[in-house]
Amino acid sequence: xxxxxxxxxxxxxxxxRLVPRLWSKTIEAHRRTVRDATLDATAALVAExxxxxxxxxxxxxxxxxxxxxxxxxxxxxxxILRAWHERQVAAHFQQLADVRDRAGDPxxxxxxxxxxxxxxxxxxHGHDDGVAAFLxxxxxxxxxxxxxxxxxxxxxxxxxxxxxxxxxxxxxxxxSYCLHALSAAGSLPSGAAVRRLVTVTLAGLRPQR
Length: 209
Fold this sequence. Notes:
Order of helices and strands: HHHHHHHHH
CATH class of the largest domain: Mainly Alpha
Number of strands: 0
Largest sheet: none
Structural class: mainly alpha
Helix content: over 70%
CATH superfamily of the largest domain: Tetracycline Repressor, domain 2
């Protein structure tokens, strides 16, 4: 009888099911590693030399992959920088969510998020004008601002309901006030100055007596 007519053993069947899945996971992990290394290398090169001085060849050399391979992931330097920026935005938003979830009462959650946002703004400051202008055009910026505004608005609403924040101004307006005020953190000289800015901002949120 031909071996092709024999039933497949349970071990072989299990191997056949598992190997493609493991291979797929390995390939995906490799792609993530290459992608992350490319984003990090590009960000470092742009920070050091400026956007206009960085080429795909230089990024490929810095990352340690072939230029042809790099083009399979990204069409140009600008696409890499957008992907890096998107990753940064997502990480910062997750950081704010984690800070919010670790804090206690509504007032404490609001303060913790505002402090974290101001410090992120302070630490992120420093792009040259060309890079800053380029990133400002990224659609992810508008999306991130909308998400951030929604988070702060909801925290303000909770804090107002608990009596920690004034309720004579809509949370929507107060959220805009806070975010605009704390955007000045990027130009401040130290973390201590950033925290003083947050203190002043919070003072404007106190309930009217």
